[in-house]
Amino acid sequence: MELHLQIKMNEKLFLRDPEQSELGKKIISHSIRLIHETGFESFTFKKLAEDIGTTEAGIYRYFENKHRLLIYIVAWYWSWLEYRVTVHTNNISDPITKLKRVIRLLAANVEDDIRTSHVEENILHQIIIAEGSKAYLTKKVSKDNKDHLFKPYKDLCAKIADIILECNPKYEYPRSLSSTIIEMAHFQVFFMYNLPSLTDFGPAKDEERVVSFLEDLALNCLTKNRKASR
Amino acid sequence: MELHLQIKMNEKLFLRDPEQSELGKKIISHSIRLIHETGFESFTFKKLAEDIGTTEAGIYRYFENKHRLLIYIVAWYWSWLEYRVTVHTNNISDPITKLKRVIRLLAANVEDDIRTSHVEENILHQIIIAEGSKAYLTKKVSKDNKDHLFKPYKDLCAKIADIILECNPKYEYPRSLSSTIIEMAHFQVFFMYNLPSLTDFGPAKDEERVVSFLEDLALNCLTKNRKASR
DNA sequence: TTTTTGTGATAGTATTACTATTGTGTGAGA
DNA sequence: TCTCACACAATAGTAATACTATCACAAAAA
Questions:
Q1: pLDDT in tens, B22-54
Q2: Which residues form a coiled coil (chains A, B) (predicted)?
Q3: How far does the CA of B58 sit from the C1' of D4, in Å?
């Protein structure tokens, strides 16, 4: 049996749906590779076109500009991750176990998903770590947000916040803790590789240490026997 | 008595020291204003030159490119913040109180420091929130790190990590918790204003809520009466 | 069959990110 | 007092970037 996983994306993210054509899929797969190699700043549609063997104008038929393409890729990642969270927490009753699984999904290295042939998920994961926040760190955030371009991120955040509330219905900051876990799952890995003195993970470069840190952080917040501070 | 606060910056950050001339100070103050207004992506040396009333080439004599200028500004901010942390935690014995003060310094709105006439600290604070991480989220991080361009950030992180260890000498992740607090002090404020559903701070837009969240986060991690998780 | 659609090919423009050169006024040192 | 760096202004120029527009062709849909 051959399975295919296709994620429905917000239509405002693109001019022409890249999932619907060979060129479109090439744009996605090659842009992921190219952004990973050169970094988002040096990435241009011209280089991408040369890489694919098409023309600049060809890319512009799919995406307004490179920032929109980044948002598309990032949104795809969050949607895919939410799907994985759903699968991996399904049929688990203990919310703490759920949360631990989620943290591992966020911070640990990814294996390639064979059902999405044109996306290399492990490279994608590295892109999100290094470039992901650039999707929303712009003057256009609010406008883009009104177009629901960040819905997949917000959905994932809400989903994890629900698990957090299952762990402790009285916890006051489920969504902030959720976004903290998500962001730190990426930032701590980035720091570990590039600015290690901002972390306690030493030269081992092991994502499991980040997982441990985040589990400790989350569980300390949610399983408090101590009295409320004041 | 007139006080002046001058922060000694790493010489690799600039080609000519901007603190040493009127034009240099104008470059700093106007770039802060301009980046705040237009965002770092739209910010160019040409616009800056027009704003100041000099020429592009004039700016290039001080800074190699706009990314270096951003790193300079960000580094200045971290140095200034470390100085403030030192002042505000001086002569306080209780480490928990120290940590709370630090969190407030990080997340709360800033008042203008009259001793640095050419820097508007409140606007600077907003820039760091929105653009700060772009200083290191590049392909050149490791190279820039070798030039010690991020030393002020790492120093601040280490300083807060020390306070964390004072609170609980057995805590395993002082530096990661430190960088988490620093990053989240900014990101949660950014989210509160621009992507509020990633937070629990509602429409109030009050930095004090972020402070409360971070205090809760940190103190839960450091004052554990519960058993170690497994 | 006609029409639409996706693509390739080419051209062109405004802006960006620089580099290089030249001249002028100012201030420090001889 | 001379002069000699110097910081700066002014101008010019280049390669790359970020687009937009037009036309032609082939395949697929109507």
A1: 999 999 999 999 999 999 999 999 999 999 999
A2: none
A3: 22
- The shortest CB-CB distance from B137 to any of A131, A141, A142 is to A131
Neighbouring C-beta atoms of residue A27, cutoff 10 Å: 28
Cα A33 to Cα B220: distance, rounded to the nearest angstrom: 41
- Minimal CA separation from A20 to chain B, in Å: 31
Cβ atoms of residues B61 and B15 within 8 Å: yes
**Does the CB of B66 fall within 7 Å of any strand C atom?**
yes
Q: What is the sign of the dihedral through the CA atoms of B174, B178, B179 and B184?
A: positive
Neighbours of B204 (CB within 10 A): 10
CA B54 / C1′ C25 distance in Å: 16
The gap between B2 CA and D2 C1' (Å) is 39
Q: Would you call A184 and B183 a contact, using CB atoms and an 8 Å cutoff?
A: yes
Q: What is the pLDDT of residues A23-58, one digit of tens each?
A: 999 999 999 999 999 999 999 999 999 999 999 999
Tokens found for residue A5: 């996983």
- SS3 assignment, position A158: helix
Asked if strand C comes closer than 7 Å to B47 Cβ, the answer is: yes
Q: What is the pLDDT of residues B100-117, one digit of tens each?
A: 999 999 999 877 666 666
Q: Which domains does chain B have, with CATH numbers?
A: 11-222 (1.10.357.10)
| Closest residue on chain B to A215 (Cα) | B229
